[in-house]
Known about the structure:
Elements: H1 3-26, H2 29-46, E1 49-55, H3 66-78, E2 86-91, E3 96-101, E4 106-111, E5 114-124, E6 138-147, H4 151-173, E7 177-180, E8 188-191, H5 205-219, H6 222-228, E9 233-239, H7 246-257, E10 260-263, H8 272-281, E11 286-290, H9 293-296, H10 308-321, H11 332-340, E12 350-356, H12 364-367, E13 374-377, H13 383-394, H14 402-411, H15 416-423, H16 432-483
Bound molecules: adenosine-5'-triphosphate.
Family: Belongs to the AAA ATPase family. BCS1 subfamily.
Transmembrane segments: 6-27
Pfam families: AAA, AAA_assoc, AAA_lid_At3g28540
Amino acid sequence: MTIGDMTQFGSMMAGVMFVFAMVQRWLPAEFRNHFQRYFQRLINYIYPYITIRFDEYQVDEFERSVAYIAIDKYLSTHSSNGAKRLKANVVTGGKSFFLNMDDYEEVTDEFQGIKIWWSSSKSISEQRVLFTYGDNDERRCFKLTFNRKHRDIITKQYLHHVLDEGKVIDVKIRPRKLYTNNTRTMWSHIMFEHPSTFDTLAMDPKKKKDILNDLMTFSKSKDYYKKVGKSWKRGYLLYGPPGTGKSSMIAAMANFLEYYIYDLELTSVKDNTDLRKLLIQTSTKSIIVIEDIDCSLDLTGQRKKKNEDEQKQELLLKMEEGTNKKDSSLTLSGLLNFIDGLWSACGSERLIVFTTNHVDKLDPALVRRGRMDMHIELSYCCFETFKFLAKNYLDIESHELFATISPLLNETNMTPADVAENLIPKSTEENGESCLKNLIKSLENRKEAARIKADEELKQAKRDKRLVKRCKKAMNKVIKMVKS
Length: 484
Ligand SMILES: Nc1ncnc2c1ncn2[C@@H]1O[C@H](COP(=O)(O)OP(=O)(O)OP(=O)(O)O)[C@@H](O)[C@H]1O
């Protein structure tokens, strides 16, 4: 029997039920209960099936249902062989694809010797909502049909099995995506294929281990967060000079946990309402990043003042739109609410990462522990970091020139980005040794430049001191003259 047959049979049964309801109305009250019981038995005997429906979008939800996504993935690997019409979905950045049954198809599955029927269908939403569902207004659903005598096994075991396996498959095959809010309230994305991993990131090995442990623990702590009554999210503050690997670390985190990245550009966000709209569209298993947070907000938490041209342009735009609504703006409290207010509880399993070059400029409320749970400093290149880069870029683990490089790194401030740049061969004639020599030259130039700058500053300080002395002398003379 196919699901199509079952559906036809179901419609027929609906007709019978209608007739039953009509007949029941005319029966004397004392016969009604008996009639109802026997009729139900008869129905169960003829049509012993139960159908459960799983909608792609549930009422009042803007994200695709987790159950629907998991079932979709589960069926793609378990039952797509049985479908006659299939849909191909490109995954992992176009490198592979998975097949799933097309709309209005049906497949069968087996669990502990029990036969289960799955079917897919779709409908067009009549209601236009604030946020569109997916690419259009189509809403899909899966229907699961099984014999009622297996109800317990299906609802208590099979469904858990489908959801768990589907989620694992989803994480494995979903391509990494990098989202950005280039319009006020909508995200757009590109495929994220950043090659940075914790294996390529040069930093103190103990620190790296701590971060990896922290991330791993977080990703496995669903029950713990539920138990302690906290939403399942964690904040990281990455700080350090430009070129020390903050962005590379975010990419490594995303690759390690297989999360999406939402790169939130605060300057494009008009007000707290827009921020909330963006937040509720972010998916679980994601990293929300606000880079250079010190450049987006000033110390009072208000957005940086727009320059005159920007203000004029905005005014023109408003005049064109015919709006004179008072402009409300993004505030620090809006941002804090975004991180850990009630709104942050929609969706789960999310990291929030701030990066800054000037940690001392940030409002303490923004980065206090509990909000930004882990503060990670990325700093200038030390000898250990250099050795890691030399191994990664040149396959060199030790070299006599290391003895020259080590003290130079202590005496200068060179970022891992600059060291890495020197270690990349620029022509086919260059080899590892010449790259190391290039680095030494660059470090020496930097050391010399720093020495000249320090000399200059010293000379300037001396000049200033002499000037102050002369001014004081002149002032004293004037005071004496005035007194006499
Ligand atoms: N710690 C590091 N380990 C390995 N490579 C690094 C590291 N730091 C920097 N690099 C290299 O330098 C490049 C620039 O680094 P990245 O963009 O991650 O620095 P950043 O701290 O985010 O800088 P900014 O503050 O300017 O955004 C990277 O693409 C990477 O090749």
